[in-house]
Design brief:
CATH superfamily of the largest domain: 2,3-Dihydroxybiphenyl 1,2-Dioxygenase, domain 1
Order of helices and strands: EHEEEEEHEEE
Number of helices: 2
Radius of gyration: 15 Å
CATH architecture of the largest domain: Roll
Largest sheet: 5 strands, mixed
Structural class: alpha+beta
Oligomer: single chain
CATH topology of the largest domain: 2,3-Dihydroxybiphenyl 1,2-Dioxygenase, domain 1
Shape: globular
Number of strands: 9
Distance between the termini: 23 Å
CATH class of the largest domain: Alpha Beta
Length: about 130
Amino acid sequence: MRIEHVAAYFMDLERAKDFFATYFGGISNELYHNKKTGFRSYFLTFEDGARLEIMSREDLKEREKTSVQPGFIHMAFSVGSRENVDKLTMRLKEDGYQVVSGPRTTGDGYYESCVLDFEGNQIEITV
């Protein structure tokens, strides 16, 4: 068994598509738009075949995001090496994204950093 894809809602769908393409190499399909419901989505496919569905709706409402709450909390991207973790973290920081931790080795042995995307979602970058 494998996870087929993970999905996340975004207020700014086009910016989300550009973010995951620019920093993580996601390749997007064409926009799906259901005019009846106002639902829009893209599927982004990554180098190893993992897929992320990014979605938006006209009636979507923002909510407060915290790093400690029930439900999915972050998505993690493996970039292959400590050097790549460091480089991507620095690139995101230089581009104005908030680094909330790391790069560091965690107590359970992961080398990682965590950054917030443009809507405050936590993205983990790991080896």
